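Supplementary Methods S3. Input chains for the assembly prediction are listed below.
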Amino acid sequence: MKFSYNWLRELVPGLASAPGELAQLITMKTAECEGIEAAGVLLDQVCAARVESVEPLPNSHNVKATVDAGPHGHITVVCGAPNCRAGSVAAYAPVGRKVVQGIESDGMLASGAELGINRDHAGILELVEPVGSPITGCAPDSIIEIDNKSITHRPDLWGHLGMAREVAAIVRQALSPPEVRALSASHGSSPIRIVIEDEQLCPRYSALVFENVTVKPSPLWLQYRLTAIGLNPINNIVDMTNYLMAELAQPMHAFDADLLRGGAIFVRPARRGEQFRALNEEEYTLEPSNLVIADAAGAIGLAGVIGGMDSKISEKTTRVVLESANFLASSVRKTSAALKLRTDASMRFEKSQDPANTVRALARAVDLLEELSPGIRVVGMADQQREIPPRPPIELPLAWLERKLGRAVPPAEVRDILQRLEFGVEEQSGGVFSVTVPSWRATKDVTIKDDLAEEVGRMIGYGAIPPRAPLFPATVPPANPERRFQHEARELFTGLGFTEVYNYSFVSEESVRAFGLDPVSYVRVANPIASDQALLRTSLVPGIRRNIVDNQKHRDAFRLFEIGLEIHKREAGLPDEIPHLAAAIYDRYGDGIAGLFEIKRAAECFMPGAKVCPAEAGPEQARPYEHPARAADIIWMGERTGRLFELHPTLLEVGRAAILDLDLRVIERITSRRLKYGTQYAPIRRYPSSAFDLSVIAGERELAGTLETRIAGFAGELVESIAFLRQYSGPPLAPGQKSVSFRVTAGSPERTLSSEEVSEIRQRIIEGMRGLGYDLRL
Amino acid sequence: MLGQSIRNLEADSLARVALANNAEELEAARIAAFGRKEGAFQQIAKEMSKLAPDERKHIGMLLNAAKQAVETALECRKQRFAQAALAARLDAEWLDLTLPAPGPRRGHLHPLTQIQRELEELFLSLGFAVLDGPEVETEYHNFDALNIPADHPARDAQDTFWLKDGFLLRTHTSPVQVRGMEKLGPPLRMVAPGRVFRNESVDASHEHTFYQLEGMMIDRDVSVAHLIYFMKTLSTSIFGRDVPVRLRPGYFPFVEPGFELDIQCLICGGAGCAVCKQSGWVELLGCGLVNPNVLRLSGIDPEEWSGFAFGLGLTRLVMMRYGIDDIRLLQGGDLRFLEQF
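Predicted structure tokens for the full assembly:
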């Protein structure tokens, strides 16, 4: 929203702060200023000049003109405008000399666009002012831009009068609003019937009917004012409505009365499929959720959003119906959003405008039209409204206010602040003010005493409240073991050389399919940013794979990991969000084995004692994105905690990636159980242990882990550990066979085992294994 | 005569010891002198048994002195050889320690992780709980319970990612306030860092996925003065020094009064530059006193309890702290970027 500094100063004549200073004050007390722009910078030098003679220049559309520029004297300028002709009065700007086509041109004859008065580039601006005079009502201005988001709750700040009221309160100067004539009494009987079907959607509809209207361009002061705040001058009638919208925040619409069919205006829901041609020349198909303004034949306006083409004001218009109405904010917003049609009007109605404003705007319209279209006659006014009961006053206890702000504000100052903002203040009983909210703040903005605390707080300035530490009992906050555990996991994995990445929660159907998964099982975003980001990830692995593909362009080998949420659909209720850790070791060269064992080491550091169980040994089949011969479950404390695998070679053009995908929810649960029930201390053994080695001959693809488990099955309770030593295949072993060696250590906490006891254990294992069909190399 | 032999033996042995070039020759000399069977001293000792007792005593003393002299020489020589051997070994084991160590370097924590942890630790030390909430939220927790009206533009599809059944991707961390109030009730001190989503096209300064830190305190008589205290503590902790802050009005439906907290621009120190759009100030966070409707909706009596809440953009903060000019880098997974932190 753009505010003209000059306009604000007309409304607050005592305003002494320069634009920059004013913008600061507004930022600190009311709403955020985004910047200040200069408008009409040339206007303090421009004067009316009579074109005395015009000579065409050869091979050019330019002419050489001699002008009488008043105080600047008789001057020669080169001008390219088609309307530069002898005898006309134009706007002369002394912008310096330059040589054009061999002729020294001193300054220029300016177009409306060049001066910032309107958007007309087609020709030079023609004036009615006497030669040498400045353009009436047009002076350089500063335009203060306010962030729209910071005034969404303030319907009154969408017009200059509302902002001027704030400014007056801030700088403690009087507000000088335009006088408003009384309308309803003096302007005859209702010239048009208003039928409001739903007074919730349209609490008030006022309309004024004029005749003897002359539609023509507005005077330059009005064109300039609109242009300066970003509106487009059109004609005197439309400009008047825009001007009053910018003054009062009350959008209005003018219909050509002769183009209306029937003697009534209906405010009603659109009929399903009703067609409407809007002023923007677009055709809309409407729904009953769209509120329309209609005549006997059909929609002539989209309530609070835009007028219709068929009843548009034109040069031929002589009679006008001027609508000044109030519509329910949510209804306007829905229509504007559904039709993707945001207008200056809809933007204001969305903020819940003040129904008291409709007639005020019509009264101001009469003032303006008398200047803009002399001879105009008011036929009459119609005003249909729902009873809007006044809001009860808000009780404001001053002691409560002090506790809220954390600072005492003297009662006189509280009263003064509220009254300057035009709240009614009465001292009800000792220390309690009864505060009446003005109509323009009462639509939704100020409803409870907390809102009044804000009014006082912002006006004294929050900088005037000294910071204070609260006094309350020292307590240990509730723990968040899950989050702490995740941080510990991050520490461990970075310590092991993995760098943390963050990936998006969105995945594409294509990538889901590339991973051999089914998109149907995914939670779907109804309105994705792009069709390739419509699903929520059920695995971190696709993101990790993308990281690998991207980074292998720059690196031969790297490690990375992510901790994030998998989001799984559930039958009912919110999806299941499972924290996962996915880590990868990539190497462009080699057979991938080192990476797999390195990432297995990481898993074992993270989950001491965890077991890796490949498909043959466990229930899980390899997933489609896993190398089927290099994939395994990770089992820890009897629970499945994740997967370890090499990424399927079809998913990686170059190199190999070992991947770990862990369910942190399960791992955290196991970890905190271990912490809670803890390990019991066992005394350090005092008696030496004995060890012996065994080599088991097995099939090439038998798992060392399985052999170990089998040995353990025969070991008995005196065996302390069974450790893999090495494996070997080749002569003298038969092809397809390997020898796997283990070191078995036995001992007792109470004594040193005798050699008989040790060899008994050894014998038991050998016989047991032989019983299972294994040869042993002894 | 035997005395002469002893003197000769001593001289010979000492000469052999002195002439030994290495440990092996020295050992040979030792065996020649002291060997159990063939050792020269052993031979002499045998002869001594034939002597008369008083002569034996004299010769014995002579023999002992000679043995001692040779033993000392042997020991001395041995030490020298050992030292030389050690010196030779040490020299041979010269190593170029400027060669790189094998194995991976320490990895890097994501800058967003780092800043989250910093702030979690700060607030834990101030007695605040660190809470988590789901990324997929109900409309109730994300909007209704925060006093955001049913027709508020934030609920539009152009701002919010909607799923089915009225679920959505949380647009801010504020729903964790609601979950905190529901779970822990008053008094309450909590922060909630996390990932949030807005339906926004991605470019260098806009993301559909970013991080926030929510904070809330509910107690008796919580005031604007308390809020300012915590916000100053927060900014001092983030920037490691006392940065000037200012509080100005800001509108959020879940607080009343609501504020925007600005910090003095770190780049220009308040003089005005491109980063702060010449204003000298940069927005850091939104905050305010908890709107009584929000308390009421979570079953807390606003006449008895009051509170403040704030929401800090962690992504923005990380960008400010490290001078990151493209927001997409944070979720781009590029190690060349991530390894800088």
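The two ends of chain B are 90 Å apart (CA to CA). Chain B touches chain A through 84 residues (CB under 8 Å).
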